[in-house]
Structures are given as structure tokens and as C-alpha cells.
Amino acid sequence: MRHFTCVQDLGDLKQALNEAFEIKKDRFQFTELGKNKTLLMIFFNSSLRTRLSTQKAAMNLGMNTMVLDVNQGAWKLETERGVIMDGDKPEHLLEAIPVMGCYCDIIGVRSFARFENKEDDYNEKIISEFIKYSGRPVFSMEAATRHPLQSFADLITIEEYKKTARPKVVMTWAPHPKSLPQAVPNSFAEWMNATDYEFVITHPEGYELDPKFVGNARVEYDQKKAFEGADFIYAKNWAAYTDPNYGQVLSKDRAWTVDTEKMALTNNAYFMHCLPVRRNMIVTDDVIESPQSIVIPEAANREISAQTVLKKILMGL
Ligand code: CP
């Protein structure tokens, strides 16, 4: 594997899951693989889990790691061609990327949707430029339209907790005060569509995702109906995708907050969220603190998904 931006890059999903479970049994069995290899992690946006879990995964493989927060201490980067650079951005991404590539063997990039230009976001302008100009294998640490390391960890977690071969997994929109990208729900949908689970998406009207990611999922506008018989509830907020509302917050309706009453409609479902989560907006204290909440093991599996991906990339160097 050279680059990792979506589920297809992983190849055979069952095999990748088996590799992940092997790594989880002994995460230090491949320490020679990353010896004298350097991972550069570039963040255009904030992070807790991705930063720590990916760095830990690289260290488990014997790699050296460097972290660059582009907006804290680095030169501000211009991303548009043709701009007369007489403003506050002294460096262009098209020089910065190949320079970064000189100092490392693998590059991880976090660059969220900016909601300034839908075409740029959905063409994955920033991570595509890293792939094109860095000369290094590049993996997504959440790009504009997908968060594949999160989705892989989510899938590992569902595989660990599922009680039936084909669980019912429900992804529900939930309210949030700010405008959030669609990367996590898009990606989760893409990965769920790559399994044979029963997969349902529920959200208020106006929050339809790109049909490319919805795939074969059943879309149910009645949240309570969607929850009936669910084995896993995956909560997430996202801003509107469809025009003319791209990037807009259309609703903050707390009737969509995941609470005990709604969880009672499920088949004693596990509650999942990628974190960070706003309590009593997305989910009530009672639900996230309940024994059915698996948000912490889900976050712990971020180390395993990152290590599986890094191992595959290292093996291809
Ligand atoms: N879930 C996730 O990616 O967390 P961070 O934004 O903290 O990295």
C-alpha cells in the first residue's frame, strides 16, 4: 500500500481486520520494520486522539516521529496558485510540500474541509497535493471528506463487540452549535457499506450526505424508528452537504440528542462516537457514562488502526 485515504486503499478488508487483531495481541512484534524510518505528521487542524494514537502506533513500529502544527510556529501557507503573495502568508504549499518530503519517509496529513469551496473540499485539494508533490507515501489523518483511520478503528470496535454476524448499525445525526465537516459520517458510511452489516442513517431533512457515501444504506428520517432493534448507535453531527446550504447549520434541535429514552428502543445497543463529543448536545451524560458506551475502547482502537496502516505502508517502502 502506498497511500491511504479511503477504505479501498486497504485492499481486502477481512485480511486488514485480521492484521489489526494480530497487532492488538502484540503491538511490539514489528519494531524492526520502522527502524531508521521517520514519520512526519502535519496538522492544519487541532487533534487529541489522532495525534497521540498515530504517534504511539509509529513508535510501536520503531519509527521516529516529527509533528508539525502548521498554524502554530510554521510559516502561514498559501494554498492557491496565481495569488500575489503580498499578504500574511510567506510560503506556498507547493514549495512547502516537497521540502517536508525531504525530511521523512511517510507523511500523515490532517486537513479539514474549509467550507469555502465545495469543489475544492470534495476534490480533496490539500491531501491530493501532498500525494502529488511530496514524493512520499501519504495517509489521511482526517481530510476534507473522509476520516479513514477513525472508521477503521470504528470497524475494529464493532467487530469486537458485535453479538450477531450481521448487526444493525445506526448512524444518527445529533445537534451541535457549530458547523462541522462531513468527513466522519461520510467515511463511517463508506466503511459500513464495505461490510455486510445492516446499516441505517438517520438525520433531519436537509442533512442528506453525498449519495456516493450513503451507498446502500437505508435513510430513515424518523430517528426513533431508526433506533428500533439497533445493535450499535453511532452518533455524529455534520453540517449540510446539499446546495445551497453546503456547510450550514440548519438545525440545533435537541430532540435529536441521544438519550436514555431513545436507547431503550434499541436492542441494548452500544453507543459510539469518535470524540470529542459535546455532552447534552450530541449525547446525554447518562448514555455516555452507561455500561453500553464504548467510546473509550473505540478511541483506544485508533492506535491499532494507525499501526495497521503504517505497517502496510512501511512494508511497501
Ligand atoms: N476522533 C478524532 O479524530 O479525534 P481528534 O480530533 O482528537 O484527533
UniProtKB/TrEMBL annotation:
Residues 2-160 form the Aspartate/ornithine carbamoyltransferase carbamoyl-P binding domain. InterPro entries: ArgF'-like (IPR043696), Asp/Orn_carbamoyltranf_P-bd (IPR006132), Asp/Orn_carbamoylTrfase (IPR006130), Asp/Orn_carbamoylTrfase_sf (IPR036901), Asp_carbamoyltransf_Asp/Orn-bd (IPR006131). Carbamoyl phosphate binds at S47, L48, R49, T50, W75, R110, H147, P148, L149, Q150, C274, L275, R302. Transmembrane segments: none annotated. N(2)-succinyl-L-ornithine binds at E142, H176, K236, R278. The keyword Amino-acid biosynthesis applies. The keyword Transferase applies. Residues 184-311 form the Aspartate/ornithine carbamoyltransferase Asp/Orn-binding domain. Its EC number is 2.1.3.11. GO terms for molecular function: transferase activity. Keywords: Amino-acid biosynthesis, Arginine biosynthesis, Transferase. Pathway: Amino-acid biosynthesis; L-arginine biosynthesis. Pfam families: OTCace (PF00185), OTCace_N (PF02729). Signal peptide: none annotated. It catalyses: N(2)-succinyl-L-ornithine + carbamoyl phosphate = N(2)-succinyl-L-citrulline + phosphate + H(+). Belongs to the aspartate/ornithine carbamoyltransferase superfamily. SOTCase family. Homotrimer. Catalyzes the transfer of the carbamoyl group from carbamoyl phosphate to the delta-amino group of N(2)-succinyl-L-ornithine to produce N(2)-succinyl-L-citrulline. Is essential for arginine biosynthesis. This is N-succinylornithine carbamoyltransferase. It comes from Parabacteroides faecis.
